[in-house]
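Q: Is it fine to ask for two folds in a single conversation?
A: Yes, each is treated on its own. Send the first.
Q: Here.
A: Result:
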Amino acid sequence: MTTSRIFHPRHFMTTTTLLLLAIVAATANAQTIANLQVGDEICAEGFVLDTYCIERTTLLDNPTVFSLENPELHSVHCLVDVNSCFSSPFEMLVNVGSQEYARGWRFDDAGRQAMVTLGRQVGSQTLGCTECEPDGGDPTDVAFTRQQEGLRAVVKAQVTSLKLEDDLKVPELTLLADPIHTNTTISTIPILDESVTDPCQRFYGMTNILDILTPEEQSQLFTTETPASFRNLRLIHGSCMLIGWGLLLPNGMLVARYFKLHPSSNSAWFKFHRICQPTGLLVATVGWIIALVNFDVFSDRDTRFVHGLVGSIVMALGWLQPLNAYFRPHISPDHPKTTTRIVWEHYHRGAGWFCFFCSLIVIVLGTLIIPRPNDRLGFQSAFVVCLLIMLGNLAFMKSDSKQDLRGFCCTRKIPPAEEPKEKDEDNA
């Protein structure tokens, strides 16, 4: 095609349209945040943390500390020794000037392995890091204390995703060089500029990516959403369990135990029992499902594991109670209790009380593993209130001085000449 034909109005318009469409398509497929796009080489610096500890919201080696609030307290030992940690993806937490660090970057598999290697190089066997390289220096030296102060690193990397079109919680990086520990007394990488303190300029002669991105762009990239959402789930889980096993279920059991008077022609106690038990069990089940879906408590043998295991056993046994109550052997005035009925009564009562006492243990353990002090104190106080309510009900029901009121609530006086008749619900 000659030059004159290319610039013919019809051909020129066609060519221009195709070029514009190609540019639009390329722009649509590229992930871009003003000053950053996929493929850019960047320098980033921050604390390296495993996704497992981030998602559980508290540090595995220090359950009272929130992962995004104090990542410097996450030990290198936990990062490279504990299977739950080093087998999960690694992320770099960045300081965006708020109370919580942001989930800045996620490393690919090669980057995760490079961080594991770096952690094992700077950690100390003297201080308990079994997978770290042997050391022979002074344990008081800064090189040995790093494993107790988190793994802070600086990386030169290429952006592979900005999470704009991918189902990622954080953008992803692939390393272009080995990561550098920011403690210069440990790092063997030559320092390019001694006059600066920023690790990116100091080691790579590059500008830290946080200094390039505006606050609005940072908010597009980074997130601190996980701790808040998980905290809400924990609060809902704990509230459901406390209402179910700390209030409704035990008081329903106490009513069945002490208000079941013989003879009786009024079944108010039985109705109360049938309301409290299913309601409490349903509320507790909501909390149980939240825990099973969102919390990983079975990976490590600690207090959380015991809490989750015993709690699941209690819930399973708890659900057997309404099932065996539905299929209970019935009795009538004309047919005395059968052996099957007696066995069922002993099992139903025994299983109920077993669940009750185990649930108290589970609740106590649950209040001990709540990470935020204010939340922990709130649940412990609420549990004490539930115990006081139970004790108050127990004292009321056992008090001889309340016989008249108790009889008014649950029985009617039967003339001496009237023969008492046993009702089925009296033994449910």
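Q: Second one now.
A: Result:
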Amino acid sequence: MSWYKLDAQWNGTCSICNVPFSRGSKIFWDSFTKKTKHDKCNLNSNNVYHGVPDTLKKDLKKKEDERKDLQRKERKQLEEERKEQDIKKIKRDRFLLYLHPHYCGTYYSFSKYGKEYFADELTQDIIKNKKKYGDNQNAKDATIRICQKMYNYIMKTPELQNIDVIIPVPNHPSTFPMNSRAVSISRELSCFTVKPCDLTILTKLIQIPNHRGMGGRARSDFFRKNQVYEILNHSSIQGKKILLIDDVHTTGETINQCVEQLSFGEPAEIHVLCAGKTQK
């Protein structure tokens, strides 16, 4: 780009400082881009306040400093948010990576193992536990037997003995009573272990359709597209060791999403204990 120095009067403003030219001012003009600028602006293009009255320089500089400070704060806040999100993602991935659910025994399905389904005591206790706890004495007795097995397993597993709170996989009120399955097991297990049971941490938003008829891939697709569980109280589990309770472990999708939601509360540890694991 070539500039030509002119001493004559020129109508227009400087392309650098946007200040109108005065009579007899030395300006430069580019024949290709049709841009003009002051002589001093050409010598020092960084001097953006050239030609501006002294009374306005301070105000302009103050506004520019405020704008730069605002941009700096926004960048810093954005970096902190990204860093916080990265830390949460790392913690969540760490919980899922090192997640090793514990089981007290095997759960046999009726469709594949009809004989074992009726003969196995733990399987029958899990089935009875799904009924209305409190209204059925058999269901209550079955829940106590399940908790006795879980308590014996905890006493043999050191990493499960120093927990701070017991959290069950929540039920959906449209299908199972709120006091059945993992909820009733957690309540009884709390009496065995003398550890608090918190039912206000997790909630179940939607029910899985055709729970029995869904295969492993269908369940995985459903959990990937839908948020089934949600954490409600983040601060109450921060820095605590959690024991997540469920009655049956089949594909692991339920446990994984519950652990993912619990990780948002930044607990110290998350352990999973299930009454039975489905025999495949």
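Q: Anything structural to flag on that second result?
A: Two points. Confidence is low (pLDDT under 50) at residues 45-51. Residues 3-52 form one domain.
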